Amino acid sequence: MADKPDQGRTGELADGELASSESTSDAVASRSSSTDDLTISVPENLSIVVDLPPAPAPEAPEDEVAVAIDEVPVNPGFVASPTEPTTTSVAIVASRLATGPTPTAAHDDDQRDIPPLPGTDAFSQSRRDRLRGEHSQQPEPAAMLTADRLLEVNRKTRPGPEGGWHRFLYAITFHTVNLGDSAKVRARKELDHRIQKQFEGGTRFVPVLTRKGGVGKTTVTTLLGMALADAREDRIVAIDANPDRGTLSERVTKQTRATVRDVVQKAASIGGFTDFSALVSRDETRLDILASDTDPLLSEAFDENDYNVVADLTARFYSIVLTDCGTGIVHSVMRATLQRADSVVIVSGGSVDEARLASETLTWLEANGYGDLVRNAIVALNMATQGTNLVKLDEIESHFRSRVREVVRIPYDPQLAAGSVVSYKDLKPLTKQSARTLAALVVEGLPTNRG
């Protein structure tokens, strides 16, 4: 029995693609003589279309769903009302798979305060203008614990006025009326405060020099040292480094015959201040003076190495070291002195040649790399020299003010002119005031901290 065409197959081809006439004619059904199986030949380019249901949407992992934020348009000019919020806070969950920066919440409350960078303490060196209870961000030295800071100012703790009518009124009213110090006393205490500036980090060296002899270097060194020692609580020493037989030790009452030569020879055996104090002379202001060599045959032996030995020893025991230099500005001692100098005092006389040589000293210092010392220098204008009454001191002072930091006039005083022992308490008030002004200016030019 002959096979009929497959009705179902014809229907599928009708919905899709129609078979070509050439492919249909080639399809032949044959019956095998030895079996009942039916064999059908299929064309090679037959196309079949199958309709599949839509694929399900992929599900995101839990860690990605936690950080997903709905795309909501935001108006940057709109400010939400606190009672009618228009935004929703979204919980942020950090994933261990995240490699980028962690997203932050949009709410202002979630912002973290950034601590300010540490700054310098404006009150690390002074308690002036500090509010009560405010503390320093840096450790304070013991010198900050002053009486005016710790004591409450009242009737019992306020000191009584000094001198004159203010003191008399304070006494007759049984300490109930305290007008305070007079203007003169306040000026003196203010100058004391300037001279008493505290230092940290080692000894300060101040040489007193000029290129001309006989202008009063030793006198100025003596006055400066006495003014410093009288006002300050620490130790002050003046070294006579003049290789040509200096006379600094003759300005105070001698208490020893020792000189800088003895200090050099006994340096290894000096273990403390008691040993060193036996080699110096001390006056009524507590100024220590170390004399120079008195033997003319040995004076030239004091060189740069010897000065360094003396300077190293004095640096162990003193806060300020003054050096009375000689006239040999190119001497090796002068080189060692300037290498340690924190400030310099240039002494000038009142005559034309003395002022010119003092100015040339400044020029020499600038030419040899000591320009900073020149700009910070103080010029002491000694008015006791000859010719002072014949020149215009204002013009000399004006010249030096254009080159150095300050100029101080040292007036004539009979006690200084005698060239002998100087009694600080017996100096004329104007001379003592000039010495104290010089001391205050020198101290103000010294570095407070030594790095």
From TrEMBL:
SUPFAM superfamilies: P-loop containing nucleoside triphosphate hydrolases (SSF52540). This is ATPase. It comes from Leifsonia poae. Pfam families: CbiA. GO terms for biological process: negative regulation of cell division. InterPro entries: CobQ/CobB/MinD/ParA_Nub-bd_dom, P-loop_NTPase, ParA/MinD_ATPase. Residues 1-42, 100-140 are annotated as: Disordered. One of its GO terms (molecular function) is ATP binding. GO terms for cellular component: cytoplasmic side of plasma membrane; cytosol. Residues 210-351 form the CobQ/CobB/MinD/ParA nucleotide binding domain. Residues 19-37 have a biased composition (Low complexity). Residues 126-137 have a biased composition (Basic and acidic residues).
